[in-house]
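To the wet lab folks,

You asked to see what we're planning to order before we commit. Fair enough. Below is the target structure as tokens, and below that is the sequence we designed to fit it. If anything looks off to you, flag it before the synthesis order goes out.
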């Protein structure tokens, strides 16, 4: 009796764990997909403003700005700044600390 109850409880726990994992995976996928979509849109807007494709290192810096400062900051920079200021604010290499 006790052995059967244990097996049933274990099976239920495993199934609940799987379901929770699926839900968490779906949510993480949505978040990641949304972030990738923002990066694509902002990259396109900046490339149009600068009239050239972004280099891989610039794309990485743009992605870092999106993660650290958020999409509102990046969108404001794209709309409000001149091309040179935009490049400096979002894409230029950061000075090395000495």
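Sequence we intend to order:
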């Amino acid at each position: 009796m006790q052995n059967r109850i244990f097996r049933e409880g274990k099976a239920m726990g495993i199934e609940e764990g799987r379901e929770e994992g699926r839900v968490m995976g779906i949510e993480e996928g949505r978040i990641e997909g949304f972030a990738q979509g923002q990066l694509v849109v902002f990259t396109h807007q900046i490339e149009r403003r600068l009239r050239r494709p972004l280099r891989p290192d610039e794309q990485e810096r743009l992605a870092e700005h999106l993660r650290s400062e958020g999409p509102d900051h990046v969108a404001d920079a794209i709309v409000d700044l001149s091309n040179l200021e935009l490049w400096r604010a979002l894409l230029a290499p950061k000075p090395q600390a000495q």
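Structural context that might help your review: The chain has a mean pLDDT of 83. The chain has four helices and no strands.

Thanks,
Computational group
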